[in-house]
Amino acid sequence: MLSPTGHPAAHDDGCHHGRSTGGCVDCKVRLISVCAALTIDELDGLEAISQVVELAPRQALFAQGEEAGAVYNITEGTLRLFRLLPDGRRHVMGFALIGDFLGLALAERFTVTAEALSPVRVCRFERAAFKALVAERPSLLERLHERAGCELRLAQDQMTLLSRRTAEEKVAIFLVGLRERYARLGQASVTLELPMGRQDIADHLGLTIETVSRIITRLDRERMILVVPGGVRLIDPARLERLAAS
Amino acid sequence: MLSPTGHPAAHDDGCHHGRSTGGCVDCKVRLISVCAALTIDELDGLEAISQVVELAPRQALFAQGEEAGAVYNITEGTLRLFRLLPDGRRHVMGFALIGDFLGLALAERFTVTAEALSPVRVCRFERAAFKALVAERPSLLERLHERAGCELRLAQDQMTLLSRRTAEEKVAIFLVGLRERYARLGQASVTLELPMGRQDIADHLGLTIETVSRIITRLDRERMILVVPGGVRLIDPARLERLAAS
DNA sequence: CGTGGGTTTGAGTACTGTCAAAGTCGGTGG
DNA sequence: CCACCGACTTTGACAGTACTCAAACCCACG
């Protein structure tokens, strides 16, 4: 899905006012995203400045340090958000799922790189236009701020996770947390898709890939999870949660 | 400075409109806090709903899980913000300095406990009244959101810090970071006050008190810092920064 | 001068990292 | 259809950093 320029492919969806399908109103993430703050009328304004962008796996949506020319709402797929440290180490700040909003802070520059892990589709909003829209719609800003509060909380939870927990606890918390996020999206299931690789998980939890692999193997041997292609099946969620809570 | 009830002492400062000193206009943190977003007139509205609260060291301003009845702006002193984990471990999320705003997210409940490390003075704003004020002043909400963006960034930096860095790097980053925060407040100095104890630093960095103590001793022996009562003197900031950057 | 909280130092242990090699899986091309 | 290749993952042996437990130390305070 690479565009000829090598940049993410952007499609102006064209039918802004004569739309029947594909518009914001029909958007499947509308009610779980910041857009839920808007009235049907306001969605028109949003749609007028939106573009659909598609990314193939491993393609970057934006990069750390780059000027933030736009904000994004994910409508399909999963991305990894990471920073590169001066010494070459990589820190995966988190994973962005369907419904997540990227660029909440409306800051000048991106502090992370966002890279697709699976085929991704996002709604792109040009930053200046989006800010203008926000300026005249306090309810949207409120909603953004509310979301930012959630983000902050997530970040703090992650800090707590990284601080003084054993490798086993970290992995358990990661799995349970991911399941909860999927559940909130209405995608509850015993089988947990893991679109990210072991190295991504390791860089997210502050562990090495070997340790992550060993722990996952151990959880499998102890019958808490079952490793399946592309993810894990949670065999004994209760025990996993007990591990995570300790 | 304990009130007879055992609760933080609150003084309605009384002279809302006939004020000459002590009002928001003269507030020494006005320009470094969210209040900088307000016009002189708007400060009147803010002042009308503000109370000064004073805390003695070790006294709590609010507690984790408690209903968030108010938001606060720190005008003096330092607090520690921490969470207690189910197993009794404590995670110090961070330290709030003069000018910091507590309750940015305007959430229903506090996610951390805030406890004074030194004599503290804060401006207390009843939450409902503050939200009402925010609702009619978009510039204030913008400012709050901007601050939230900073907070989020700080939290992410802390995540990066906690993830896969050696104990020595963690302590160096902590010291350098604290110095930068003081510097931004116009309190640059070679002597770094450390109102928090070793245990607080340990719980902040995800280390044990023994490790923190050993590292600080080592940095002292290697002539990067000099341990002094109540803090440290930075002897060789450049070398410390190199350690922190690695 | 004794007490208590906080800090420092010491000895031993264990968890997780490092280095190295083998294994798995999917895709490609002969 | 099968062999090969490469990326990723798993497993193993060993080492090192930070943790645990324990004791000494320091200083402010009564």
TrEMBL record, chains A, B:
Keyword Manganese among record annotations: no
CC per GO annotation: cytosol
UniProt-recorded name of the protein: Transcriptional activatory protein AadR
Highest rank taxon of the organism: Bacteria
UniProt entry keywords in alphabetical sequence: DNA-binding, Nitrogen fixation, Transcription, Transcription regulation
Domain Cyclic nucleotide-binding intervals: 34-146
Entry annotated with the keyword DNA-binding: yes
Pfam families from the UniProt entry: cNMP_binding, HTH_Crp_2
GO MF annotations, alphabetized: DNA binding; DNA-binding transcription factor activity
UniProt-listed SMART domains: cNMP, HTH_CRP
Domain HTH crp-type: 165-238
Gene: aadR_1
